[in-house]
Specification:
Helix content: 25-40%
Distance between the termini: 38 Å
Shape: elongated
Oligomer: single chain
Order of helices and strands: HHEHEEEEEEEEEEEEEEHEHH
Strand content: 25-35%
């Protein structure tokens, strides 16, 4: 009965997976990530700027106490400019308002150079250090080369062992709901032999159906002959 319930429910939900947007929903459970063999990396460092703090691990960001993303890159720095907070990865800048709302993501085409190696501030302007040089911007849109002088560069601070453990649980990587349902439906969730068990149960269902139909039809056919 449990097998039939799992098969029916998962099949029904998967048929409406696109409407339910299952591929964009994740379960962040420590035991589930371990079951799937996902490597869980504890965070070792944090970036701080003013009243803002960023901790990153496993493709997720804990920014000012809020979780962001599922497959975000490792940040290289965090700085503030008037009205904005900017987080840099090696290939993009993520621009947020002070309340944590994402304003824009600037990819390689919008940057003065990549990879971004460092990020800082000077004279209320954003400074990025890249493989092509050091550049400044007041709005993260227009850039001009500047000398490396009087720049307050963003630098990470180490986390204590207790902080690492606490952040590790908060930043546990997720498993897609759609992937989980597919694995339950096919039996892959139970490991290498799971699909074989599902196949065996499916064969048993076929046998039960055929024998049930036979037991129903044969006595009826005999009564009609008499």
């Amino acid at each position: 009965m449990l097998f039939f319930l799992i098969l029916a429910v998962t099949g029904l939900v998967l048929n409406h997976g696109r409407d339910l947007r299952l591929d964009g929903q994740y379960l962040h459970l420590y035991w589930l990530s371990r079951w799937y063999g996902i490597k869980i990396e504890p965070p070792h460092q944090t970036f701080r700027s003013g009243h803002h703090e960023l901790v990153a691990a496993n493709g997720r960001w804990l920014f000012d106490g809020r979780i962001f993303g599922e497959k975000l890159p490792q940040p290289v720095g965090l700085i503030e400019i008037p009205g904005l907070v900017v987080i840099a990865s090696d290939a993009a800048l993520y621009v947020y308002r002070d309340d944590g709302e994402l304003v824009d993501r600037l990819g390689p085409d919008a940057l003065p150079g990549v990879p971004v190696r460092s990020i800082g501030s000077s004279a209320r302007k954003l400074i990025v250090g890249t493989a092509s040089g050091t550049f400044a911007s007041a709005d993260a849109l227009s850039w001009q080369p500047v000398p490396v002088q009087n720049v307050a560069w963003s630098a990470p601070a180490d986390l204590s062992a207790e902080q690492q453990q606490a952040y590790e649980k908060a930043l546990t990587p997720g498993v897609s709901v759609q992937q989980l349902l597919l694995d339950l439906h096919s039996g892959r969730f139970a490991g290498h032999y799971g699909p074989l068990i599902v196949d065996l149960l499916a064969v048993m269902l076929v046998v039960l159906s055929l024998t049930g139909a036979w037991l129903f039809l044969v006595p009826r056919h005999r009564r009609e002959r008499h």
